[in-house]
Task: inverse folding
């Protein structure tokens, strides 16, 4: 362990230290955001290509051959290439968007400010964390351009087909090695990040900032970093063993007497279930790593717009903590169909049903707090509401999937695809949007365009429901997932539904260009933002300048006098009092 | 002779000595500042991040080796190709070296601690025991390499059977972590000689080093029982 540097470091002078290898948590946060933005654009285009193929399989997509040498003869996708695109879409989205944006990007930028610190305690590790993640991204994307393309094994990379090498199909040789290397490197980056997040929360809080006075977003990042620390530390060994099976001829995951493509594999005794255990021990917490920061961000955003605190600050925090703890006990519910002992299925089903309790508590707190609130409607709060809506709609289908007897029928269908896209993908995405519209003024000093933001919200909100709700019906109708064409009599009648989804996906995707335009346009020509445009209370709105100076708070760090969400009070500034304000206030209720 | 006398490192007693400008880290569950701003009961001191950080690092290393352990147990469980492997005897010598290095590091830590709090006109900083620790650590890594050579001589390579696979993987990853600790120790020596060492850095490095020793004893027992 290196005590690399104290949080205090002088402002950089050279261009490289300022913008490239920066030690400033704010720059690193923006770098993570930019990386996530690049990744989400790639991931979205990949999904468009897949959707086009699913809707109109025989039509050529111009330029498709540029992405793959053999995967698109005459610009028509081969089944293998479809799986390659699917794998890359999922890997890019899960790791480089849903993990980096809500957790690493916003967390890096705002966690130190919200706790009242100058920076994270280990800035060099923080810088490494970003650049390591960046390298991981390059390694992953490079697999498009080497050998026979990226791996087609799905983001879960189930053994033994992920471990035996090129004999299992295009991309299963070098493609898997690059995939596993990329994810292994990514783990290192996230471990370094988690180290900083945890120490920042525990050790860097300013005077008066007790743990219970941390805003919900800071709590969410802290809980997420604890999950990340344990989950990524398990995924990394799994990746190492997978690479060894490829490159060193070991048999960790490959059983004996395995014949693939008429070739007997020179391995013996490996355990295919072992990979699944290691992977899902990471994989399920990963779902919460993606969604818990969104919960924190959305709570933070909604409270500022409701002008009153949540019904119970502590219940919300305890529930997020319960999600984190339970997330390790439920991972087997991904394996109901994988040959695991049925008794284990039962053992994993029970905590899976229990985990709906903290989720429901969180949702009820949101709804109960929203009830009767005079909500300010703006892009940030709309996306906050969208998050709540998506989380409920996607979460409800989880009740069904948690039961092995139901899951056996639905697991390999689009029902599951609809479930996780809504509850984890779109919900987390809406959390990112809510955070962006809310914090953009602080990050760049300019406001985003509200009209464009609202158009963006409504198109995205209606669009994502149009895409992912039909998935559930497809699944109930028996439409299998991971297939590139639907040729049986039972599935042919479902193709028009796929065509509808494809059109919806293209329109919703195009709507994201509005967001992109808004982001770039507002960055340069947006209305200048004041220090506290939302009349919010937490410390990020108390910085002396906007964006905050290099050391966040100028010469003296703030002292915290109040709980994080003191809205609905009477103070000299209005209906709220900032955490750093020594003013004594009384609540409006008290007065009445 | 001002040129030969080095300034002893600063004693780290209060947070202020670490952060010239900042006053971060005053929080704590019971340190609520009352709304009228009475700061009297606020404890303006939190542990230096290195002390917390090292536990975070050790937790993640523990998880990693727990994953490897469970992999070993699952892999052994249903397999028919598990072949007993006699551990190279040099491992026991290596174990002694690593445990001895923990003792020498403790001696070093006490000497440096006494040096830091002692009078300011002392001569050279007590880095001798740190060098001894470094040497023992290097010998351990070299000894592990010899163990690998001995296994190779028996015809047991990484892919020969699952037992040898796990042997190379577990010892290799552990040796990597020990090498990281050696880097940390080298850094401590350099900072001590330049009189910029913090006690918390030394303590954190020592904790990591002792953990590596404990981890190795655990791994040795695991390998001895399972392989």
Result:
């Amino acid at each position: 362990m290196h005590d690399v540097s104290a949080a205090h470091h002088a402002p950089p002078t050279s261009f490289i230290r300022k913008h490239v290898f920066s030690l400033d948590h704010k720059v690193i946060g923006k770098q993570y955001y930019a990386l996530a933005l690049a990744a989400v654009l790639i991931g979205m285009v990949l999904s468009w290509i897949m959707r086009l193929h699913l809707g109109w399989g025989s039509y050529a997509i111009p330029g498709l051959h540029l992405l793959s040498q053999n995967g698109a003869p005459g610009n028509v996708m081969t089944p293998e290439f479809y799986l390659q695109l699917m794998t890359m879409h999922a890997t890019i989205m899960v790791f480089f968007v849903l993990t980096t944006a809500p957790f690493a990007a916003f967390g890096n930028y705002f966690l130190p400010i919200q706790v009242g610190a100058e920076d994270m305690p280990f800035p060099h590790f923080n810088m490494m964390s970003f650049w390591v993640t960046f390298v991981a991204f390059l390694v992953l994307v490079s697999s498009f351009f080497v050998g026979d393309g990226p791996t087609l094994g799905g983001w879960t990379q189930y053994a033994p087909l992920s471990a035996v090498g090129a004999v299992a199909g295009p991309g299963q040789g070098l493609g898997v090695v690059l995939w596993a290397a990329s994810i292994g490197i990514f783990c290192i980056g996230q471990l370094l990040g988690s180290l900083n997040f945890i120490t920042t929360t525990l050790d860097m809080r300013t005077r008066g900032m007790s743990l219970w006075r941390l805003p919900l977003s800071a709590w969410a990042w802290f809980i997420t970093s604890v999950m990340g620390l344990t989950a990524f530390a398990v995924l990394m060994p799994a990746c190492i063993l997978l690479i060894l099976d490829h490159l060193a001829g070991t048999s960790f995951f490959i059983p004996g007497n395995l014949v693939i493509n008429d070739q007997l594999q020179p391995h013996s005794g490996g355990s295919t279930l072992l990979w699944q255990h290691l992977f899902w021990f990471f994989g399920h917490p990963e779902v919460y790593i993606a969604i818990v920061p969104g919960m924190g961000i959305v709570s933070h955003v909604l409270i500022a717009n409701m002008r009153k605190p949540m019904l119970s600050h502590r219940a919300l925090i305890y529930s997020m903590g319960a999600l984190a703890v339970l997330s390790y006990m439920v991972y087997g519910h991904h394996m109901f169909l994988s040959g695991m002992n049925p008794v284990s299925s039962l053992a994993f089903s029970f905590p899976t049903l229990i985990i709906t309790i903290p989720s429901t508590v969180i949702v009820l707190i949101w709804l109960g707090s929203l009830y009767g609130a005079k909500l300010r409607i703006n892009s940030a709060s709309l996306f906050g509401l969208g998050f709540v809506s998506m989380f409920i709609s996607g979460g409800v289908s989880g009740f069904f999937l948690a039961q092995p007897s139901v899951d056996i029928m639905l697991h390999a269908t689009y029902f599951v695809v609809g479930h996780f896209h809504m509850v984890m993908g779109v919900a987390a995405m809406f959390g990112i949007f809510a955070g962006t519209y809310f914090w953009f003024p602080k990050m760049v000093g300019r406001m985003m365009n509200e009209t464009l933001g609202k158009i963006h919200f409504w198109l995205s909100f209606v669009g994502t429901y149009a895409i992912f709700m039909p998935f559930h019906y497809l699944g109930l109708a028996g439409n299998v997932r991971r297939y590139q064409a639907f040729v049986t009599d039972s599935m042919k009648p479902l193709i028009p539904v796929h065509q509808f989804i494809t059109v919806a996906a293209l329109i919703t995707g195009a709507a994201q260009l509005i967001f992109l335009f808004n982001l770039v346009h507002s960055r340069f020509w947006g209305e200048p933002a004041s220090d506290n445009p939302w009349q919010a209370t937490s410390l990020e709105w108390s910085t002396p300048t906007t964006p905050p100076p290099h050391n966040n708070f100028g010469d003296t760090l703030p002292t915290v006098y109040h709980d994080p969400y003191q809205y609905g009070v009477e103070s000299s500034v209005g209906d709220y009092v900032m955490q750093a304000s020594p003013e004594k206030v009384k609540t409006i209720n008290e007065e009445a | 002779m001002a040129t030969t006398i080095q300034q002893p490192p600063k004693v780290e007693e209060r947070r202020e000595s670490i952060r010239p400008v900042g006053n971060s880290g005053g929080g704590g569950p019971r340190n609520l500042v009352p709304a009228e701003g009475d700061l009297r009961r606020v404890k303006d001191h939190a542990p230096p991040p290195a002390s917390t950080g090292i536990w975070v690092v050790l937790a993640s290393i523990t998880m990693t080796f727990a994953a490897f352990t469970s992999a070993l147990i699952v892999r052994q469980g249903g397999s028919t190709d598990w072949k007993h492997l006699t551990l190279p005897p040099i491992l026991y010598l290596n174990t002694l070296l690593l445990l001895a290095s923990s003792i020498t590091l403790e001696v070093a830590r006490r000497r440096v601690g006494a040096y830091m709090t002692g009078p300011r006109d002392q001569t050279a900083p007590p880095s001798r025991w740190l060098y001894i620790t470094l040497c023992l650590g290097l010998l351990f890594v070299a000894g592990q390499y010899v163990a690998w050579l001995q296994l190779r001589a028996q015809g047991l390579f990484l892919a020969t059977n699952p037992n040898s696979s796990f042997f190379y993987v577990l010892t290799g990853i552990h040796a990597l972590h020990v090498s990281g600790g050696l880097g940390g120790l080298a850094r401590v020596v350099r900072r001590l000689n330049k009189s910029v060492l913090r006690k918390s850095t030394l303590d954190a490095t020592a904790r990591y080093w002792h953990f590596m020793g404990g981890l190795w004893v655990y791994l040795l027992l695991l390998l001895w029982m399972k392989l």
Notes: The first strand of chain A starts at residue 259 and ends at 260. Chain A touches chain B through 67 residues (CB under 8 Å).
